[in-house]
Amino acid sequence: MKTKPQLSFWQIWNMSFGFLGIQFGWGLQMANMTPIYESLGAEPDEIPMLWLAAPLTGLIVQPIIGAWSDRTWTRIGRRKPFFLVGAILSSIALVFMPNSSAIWMAAGLLWILDASINVSMEPFRAFVVDMLPKKQQSMGFAMQSFMIGAGAVIASALPWILTNVFNLETGQSKSGISNSVLWSFYIGAFFFLGAVLWTIFKTKPYPPSEEEITALKERPKLKEIIREIINGIVNMPLTMRRIALVQFFTWPGLFLMWFYYSSAVSVDIFNAKPDSIDYDQGIEFAGLTFAFYNLVTFIFALSLPFFSTQFGKRLTHATCLALGAFGLCSVSFINNPNLLFLSMTGVGIAWASILSMPYAMLAPSLPAKKVGLFMGIFNFFIVLPEIIASLGFGWFMENVLGNDRSLAVACGGILLLIAAALTFRVPKSE
User: Fold this and answer.
1) Cα(357)–Cα(320) distance, rounded to whole angstroms?
2) C-beta of residue 180 within 8 angstroms of C-beta of residue 164
3) Mind listing the pLDDT tens digit for each residue in 61-71?
4) Calpha distance 162→177 (Å, rounded)
5) Which of 22, 30, 31, 257 is nearest to 151 (CA)?
6) Distance between CA atoms of 410 and 397, rounded to whole angstroms?
7) Distance between CA 294 and CA 298 in Å, rounded?
8) pTM recorded for the entire structure
């Protein structure tokens, strides 16, 4: 078996650059979907169900795409066809999303957008293992976090930037969606496709052997893929099982932030109603703080390999999750909007680690020929708790929290703290 050559900083940069574009899709969605839904008339307790598209499409799409990409080889490589198809479909969905005229239309487009993003994103995780020797894989995942942070900084802040820097005319579309959000989605569509194309043209895939290429050209049947997924679930490595439990508590915590943070800032801190101009200003400010936490992610991500080497991957990840937990819980106690930047510092540190450390801990335990498959299965433990939150948190929000958006964000912080404690059960890895 050939030893993979070490890649330079710029080669790792180029192979990760497509993640910058993917984050335009995620960043615009996370910061603006709840405001879009509320602008179209949705109530707070209806929001979790309307977000169901994200985890459900991930549950279905990622393991299938992961297993399929493991067994694919084309003139442009194993993973690149999936990068390209997902980017094209995502960009189309981003253009149509802010033109939604009804809740059902926005929800339907979210399903299309999330499915398309997952087609691009899942092979990117496996791409790191394809291209890099084990010693550089932590750097590869950290670079992806860096790109995610950079893309999200711009995507989250775009509505505020367009209004306050470029003096875009304030106002709303016929469906009540602000002009700044509308144009942000258009710009995001362009950058999503452009960044993925950069990776496709600038990266030469590491080729398998001639025997492997011959086998890969035999297209797998769906039954075979499903059988392989079931077998992978039954035979998960111990390390993967333990990290999966950490993920099971981490991601619903993040999901609650994405459900309610933007509207919590607007309603609870700016004291605005969803149909007012003040509400739009609150949403833009929340987007600015989203951009700030992604800026923290952007800056902190490249230091993660150092911290994980000095203190171990487990301690590094647990500490980052705890900082994120305190950041989310603090939102309930804030009256001055500027203090949100302090809260989001903790969230940004946690986000940098969430996007890289679990994968860095997981990768050494996976069989090389089934990385895409196991990365897709690993996603189950992100999306299953999100589905539970989407289906059940609406009742909890209405009957226990009294539709208090800030308390919902704090519940997300508590879940992150539980995940931090569970990290210490993960076996140590090299």
Assistant:
1) 10
2) no
3) 777 787 777 77
4) 15
5) 22
6) 12
7) 6
8) 0.71
